[in-house]
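Sequence only, no structure available. Ideas?
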Amino acid sequence: MEQVIYIKSDSVRLTATMHLPEPLPEKEADRWPLVLICHGFVGSRIGVNRLFVKAARTFCRHGLAVLRFDYGGCGESEGEYGEGGLDVLLQQTRDVIDYAMKLEQVDSSRVVLLGHSLGGAVATLAASQDERIHALVLWAAVARPSADIIRIVGETKYEQVLQTGWTDYLGYRLTDRFFRSLEQFDPLREAQCFAKNTLVLHGNRDDVIPVDAMFQYERQFRLRPQGNCETGIVLGGDHTFSSLEGYSRLMASTVTWINRQLEESGVTV
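Reply:
I predicted one. Tokens follow.
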């Protein structure tokens, strides 16, 4: 079952899609483990080449509920994306987590936070501050928000921000406040505060976020006194895992890992 829902965050209404597995008769009273998906920079809950739609339906076929949402000003959500900052994205993620935890179909003790690209940085920050998150999955995650996003936008656009206070990037009005906020957060440092298991995957053909970002996250996660970290290079995977080969490898690794986390916790799906 797929249903569009709306989640309030401050003054905006975020649009989301909830996926629920088809319940088996003997499991009608059960609550489902949940994967909550955080999309990347100027993205949407659909994803490039429908990455998050396909992923959600794949997860569902493996007995996982999924909640994917649009950040403010992206996709179908209200608001203006570039007027806020990383702090706003983080607060919106927290509000979506709070909403998900109250859903009667969801097992609130088995919530996996999954972030892609800049959403990976946001997911890391959110998970590091929220003990309710059971496990964390990062796909091609941004490791250094300010440097990575400036490189993606381009130096010319960034210089325009410094001179005029904003720039037009793909139709998004990115303000100086947005760029200043990127400097205020360090997901690599905060990664050490997440005490549970983590999976970090990155495509070997990613020309947007260098694969070195995976190793940077791995180093930080392995410094923790608690929580395991597994990493994997997805052969054939570009930044959005667009090829059939890249997507298939990505999902096989992710589904296997999530199910193992749930099995070790006494939950089978």
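The radius of gyration is 18 Å.
Hope that gets you unstuck.
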